[in-house]
Write a structure and sequence with these properties.
alpha/beta; Rossmann fold; 2 domains; eight-stranded mixed sheet; 14 helices; 14 strands; globular
Length: 393
Amino acid sequence: MNSKNSKHIVFLGLSGFPIGMAAIQRQILLGRALISEGWTVTVICTRSTHGNNVKIRKVGNYQGIRYVYLFDPIRKQNFFHRNFQKLSAPLIELFLLRKLNSKQDIYCAIVSNSNSFLNSIKSFLHSRIIGFKVIINLVEVYKERDRVTLFKKINDYFFNKFGLYFYDAFLPISDYIIDYFKSFHRRFHKIPVIVDVNTISNLNCQKSEQPFFLFCGAAAYYKSFDFIIESFGLVKRADCKLFLVTNGTKLQLDSIKNKAKTHGIEDRVVILKNLSDFELHTLYKRANGLLLPLFNTIQDKARFPHKLGEYLASSTVVLSNPVGEINNYLQNEINVMFSPSSDCRSYADNMEWVLENSQEALKIGERGLQVSSLNFDYTILAPGINDFLTSLK
């Protein structure tokens, strides 16, 4: 067992670093927060996830964060090769952790594993064999999910019943998650959405001459896209566009296009893919409003969408619904525009209000920026995260 004097943290459970949307971006910003407090951060990626168009090294450094892929980062098409990786990854990961620990003691591992029960067991065994703390980053509650396999339903049941017993502590993103897992009696530290406020807020760009609203999210969130397109279809301003920044399969993207066509707004809906962070953040700043629908479900009560922090940092007014964690930070018509959950007519009315009251909308957006600066910036959150982690020894 190591002395644990070393401030070395390893991130486990995600692959794709440093390329990816919410989960990877949260990992990057947590890493930067820890580095600012004197920690060494290493990310281990156990799977090959990237296409041939991605240029990324197997071992590298990104914004001060070291990362290592167990295999070539480029995903192989060979079936046997991919399955060999799945079977051998746990053992190779253990050997790599031992090697890293021999060079600089690992104080703890922060695990992001989509609430996987089997990965919880694996992380626990690795931590006890080598001798470090293991903490899970909890951003979702997986229960009563639609369109999932029987295997995933079984996983959800066992994780919710027993999963946290394999961890020394957890990092919840919301009060709902804290309450949901309180019976495990594990130490915790809440980390809300986390963002680099200055990078977004300091961009110097003006509002677009042609009005548009923007939503950013994976195409798999079919419910969000259905709600947004149906709501936007009720907006009477024919000169206003809807920008959808998304990624997904051809089937998922075609579904979005067909939904827009059904509502007769296909010429007003623009689908954008593969934007750089700079391009995306610029669109945030230039938009009239940023869309973030939330629904009265277990999933939306528990989660706290990563893009909210970025939306607010742009100082553009956010249009959302008063569901879950968002209520702890934002107030209707003060720093956000709320409408009742699942009410398309009300959501459309708020979009039209923003178009007709641009100066008042700008003020709401500016107050939203203040909320993000005080509560979600990684430099603000860093000391609390550091204090919690150091207290675990």
